[in-house]
């Protein structure tokens, strides 16, 4: 069971909504910090050190990255803009891993200049990187276990996934890198997404620990760290349980003692790249009911839409919905919709909810990862603001809402065709 509570009272969120106007995402800093601390406490036994590289794509806001940096996290970046955000947040290059795929040469060059750890996606990227930017002192390679590992709904079966090296390619790659004079190595896999079974990650660790020992036997390469990837899920539904990080860590520790220590690979660093479980549960999309509509069904039309939170439309994902101040009242079954000209622009379908009226606030839970980040401008929708609820209870705006000027800013303005936001009142 996960309790779907809110970090603000109905009166407080109404005040915030009046001040900042809906829709917006609001993130609970205190809960993010407490969760990060519990995560690190669970892994404080790792002899070679533990670090979670926060997957920046989940919540690419440097104000959040700075909070996570203060809690000891690094950053997992997949593009130049994400690298720049991580650096702007003050994260040291050695605490940034660049896990990209289908990477442009220019991004390898920048990553190399910044001195971040590069995680290669393919054996052909070794000569590609060498030619574009030269090989760095430390490199990591991404393993795709193929049929050795069962699939997972969002990321799919490993053998169908475009990512990573095969096992055989890894032996060849590390041998080649060693020959080229590299001395520092990491090994990485990322095979799950939103996975709630802790055992799944323990199995991944077993696979990687055995592989690291085998690569060491065959090539003499000694790993500095093993990166177990991200993918730890969160309980989007009230009847789901979060992953128990303490027992997950205990399972990994047992394997460390069974595999890594006898293989004489101790001390070894263990790293992860969790994004979703770090911030996901601590973000909320706050929106107001614009319309109630009764046709063949009941519709609750919000001032937010799929452009603010795409997961329900994209994956049919469940996001819990609360109606502050109305939770004890009568309930009804409704579809909760946005205003896009797309019938899948629905936050919930046939959901039992408190009866709402236009003007009521509606809070959509678990939007702290892949919420604002996946936003887009289709149908002329502007991306919302992001707010931070600080531990003192004060609210800080950490990203303003887009304006019409922002939306038109990239148009070629030389031909008098760019609308002026205040026009349109008739000739
Ligand atoms: C998305 C991604 C992550 C983070 O996944 P979460 O589900 O947010 O933990 C980590 N590593 C890579 C390479 C990714 O693509």
State the share of residues found in helices, binned by percent: 25-40%
Query: What gap, in angstroms, lies between the N and C termini?
Result: 59 Å
Can you tell me the residue ranges where pLDDT is under 50 for at least 5 consecutive residues? Answer: none
Label the structural class: alpha/beta
Q: Hetero groups bound?
A: pyridoxal-5'-phosphate
Q: Provide the gyration radius in Å.
A: 23 Å
Number of separate helices? 12
Q: What would you give as the CATH superfamily of the largest domain?
A: Alanine racemase
Series of H and E elements = HEHEHEHEHEHEHEHEHEHEEHEEEEEEH
Percent strand equals 15-25%
CATH class designation of the largest domain: Alpha Beta
Structure, described:
The chain has two domains: 43-274, TIM Barrel (Alpha-Beta Barrel), CATH 3.20.20; 281-406, Lyase, Ornithine Decarboxylase, Chain A, domain 1, CATH 2.40.37. It has 427 residues and is α/β, with parallel strands linked by helices. The longest helix is centred in the middle third of the chain and has 22 residues, at 198-219. Helix content is 30%, strand content 22%. The strands form two sheets. Strands 1, 10, 11, 12, 13, 14, 15, 16 and 17 form a nine-stranded mixed beta sheet that branches. It has an eight-stranded parallel β-barrel with strand order 2-3-4-5-6-7-8-9, surrounded by five helices. The protein is globular. It starts with 9 loop residues before the first helix and ends in a 19-residue tail after the last helix. It is built from twelve helices and 17 strands. Bound molecules: pyridoxal-5'-phosphate.
């Amino acid at each position: 069971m996960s309790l779907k509570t809110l970090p603000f009272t109905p009166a407080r969120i109404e005040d915030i909504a009046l001040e900042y106007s809906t829709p917006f995402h609001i993130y609970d800093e205190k809960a993010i910090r407490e969760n990060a601390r519990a995560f690190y406490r669970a892994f404080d036994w790792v002899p070679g050190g533990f670090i979670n590289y926060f997957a920046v794509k989940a919540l690419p806001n440097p104000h959040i990255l700075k909070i996570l940096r203060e809690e000891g996290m690094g950053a997992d970046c997949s593009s130049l803009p994400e690298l720049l955000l991580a650096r702007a947040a003050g994260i040291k290059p050695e605490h940034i891993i660049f896990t990209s795929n289908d990477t442009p040469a220019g991004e390898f060059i920048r990553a190399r200049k910044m001195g971040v750890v590069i995680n290669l996606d393919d054996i052909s990227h070794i000569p590609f990187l060498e030619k574009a930017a030269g090989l760095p002192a430390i490199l990591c390679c991404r393993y795709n276990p193929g049929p050795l590992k069962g699939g997972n709904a969002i990321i799919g079966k490993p053998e169908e996934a475009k990512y990573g090296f095969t096992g055989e390619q890894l032996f060849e790659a590390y041998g080649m890198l060693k020959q080229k004079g590299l001395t520092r190595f990491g090994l990485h896999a990322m095979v799950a997404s939103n996975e709630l079974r802790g055992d799944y990650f323990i199995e991944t660790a077993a696979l990687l620990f055995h592989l690291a020992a085998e690569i060491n036997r065959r090539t003499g390469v000694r790993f500095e760290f093993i990166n177990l990837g991200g993918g730890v899920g969160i309980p989007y539904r009230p009847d789901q349980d979060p992953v128990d990080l303490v027992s997950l860590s205990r399972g990994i520790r047992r394997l460390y003692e069974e595999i890594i220590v006898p293989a004489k690979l101790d001390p070894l660093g263990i790293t992860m790249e969790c994004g979703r479980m770090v911030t996901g549960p601590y973000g909320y999309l706050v929106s107001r009911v614009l319309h109630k509509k009764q046709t063949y069904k009941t519709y609750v039309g919000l001032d937010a839409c799929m452009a603010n939170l795409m997961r329900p439309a994209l994956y049919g994902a469940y996001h819990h919905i609360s109606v502050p101040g109305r939770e004890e009242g009568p309930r009804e079954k409704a579809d909760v919709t946005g205003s896009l000209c797309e019938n899948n622009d629905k936050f919930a379908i046939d959901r039992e909810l408190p009866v709402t009226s236009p003007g009521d606030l509606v809070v959509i839970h678990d939007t702290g990862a892949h919420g604002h980040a996946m936003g887009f401008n289709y149908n002329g929708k502007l991306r919302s603001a992001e707010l931070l609820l600080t531990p003192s209870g004060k609210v800080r705006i950490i990203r303003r809402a887009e304006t019409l000027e922002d939306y038109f800013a990239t148009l070629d303005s030389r031909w008098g065709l760019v609308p002026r936001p205040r026009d349109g009142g008739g000739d």
